[in-house]
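Predicting holo structure, UFG bound.
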Amino acid sequence: MKILVCGGAGYIGSHMVAYLLENGHDVIVLDNLQTGHKDSLLGGKLYIGNLKDNEILDKVFTENKIDAVIDFAANSLVGESVENPLKYFDNNIGSTIKLLEAMNKYNVKYIVFSSTAATYGEPENIPILEQDKTFPTNPYGESKLAVEKILKWCDRAYGIKYTALRYFNACGAHINGKIGEDHRPESHLIPIILQAALGKREKIMIFGDDYNTEDGTCVRDYVHVSDLASAHLLALERLRNGGESKIYNLGNGKGFSVKEVVDVARMVTGINIKAEIAERRAGDPATLIASSEKAIKELGWKPKFNSLETIIETAWNWHKNHLNGYEK
Ligand code: UFG
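Done. Tokens:
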């Protein structure tokens, strides 16, 4: 297949591009490189530009016979979205609308959309099922939920079939050691812990130890980025085989507390990473754990990295060999 990956130079996007290339697909990347890194692309044809720019979309779709689209292009900082909601609604919803218009114009009928556990907000049940209540507690989650709804109507009106994948905590790095996680500024737990291990930070601050969890720190479901990539390709293949539009959770179905993640990272690195308890971070639910049974059953998804230790090993392998991320 010839697949357009929007936001392909980002953390999850770049692992998607690598996975598609490994599986013999042709890859076209559209990325404005605002948060993505050119060096994270292990191949494919890159177009640098914004999804909201009709000209670049016309160029991409006329120069390439695209079979399907995978869309990762979005702003994704929860905290920033609370401070600047319009940026998130404008960019995350607006750019997907432009993309869908182009898909309709050029008769491209399949899209896999990068959604999030943040669509659920405070969960009603653990593990979380796809049919559970969606009530986002921040504009980032709200913008992704809005796109899911837009996709539903575009399916009805234009026959564009979609799969929305709601990721839990994406983490880890490619086992080839060439690509990994580099956000600026970094806000995610595992890279922050590993930066502390490397002496790039003095310590890690644990945001709250008075949650209603076993050790009082937040519990999350950590899922390897390459496993997320494999689910996207399975979802595309399913759509191409006539599958209906659907939504799936992607997680490992196991929860780890922040303290447990720090402990596993200490074990993997052999370094006594310093940690200190700090105030809660606004908007953090106590526990988020996915049920991914639907993806396992219907997509035939088999996550390979189901131990936190191996996931952190892959991240550690990348971080210790890329002390400044993608910066030369
Ligand atoms: N945490 C710390 N210290 C840090 C960073 C994080 O204690 O320095 C804690 C957070 O409070 C949270 C856990 O570690 O309890 C994980 O935090 P991350 O920022 O790594 O991830 P989140 O669970 O906040 O966010 C993830 C995705 C988002 C998505 C969200 C859905 O990264 O894109 O899940 O709720 F929106």
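The chain is about 40% helix and 15% strand.
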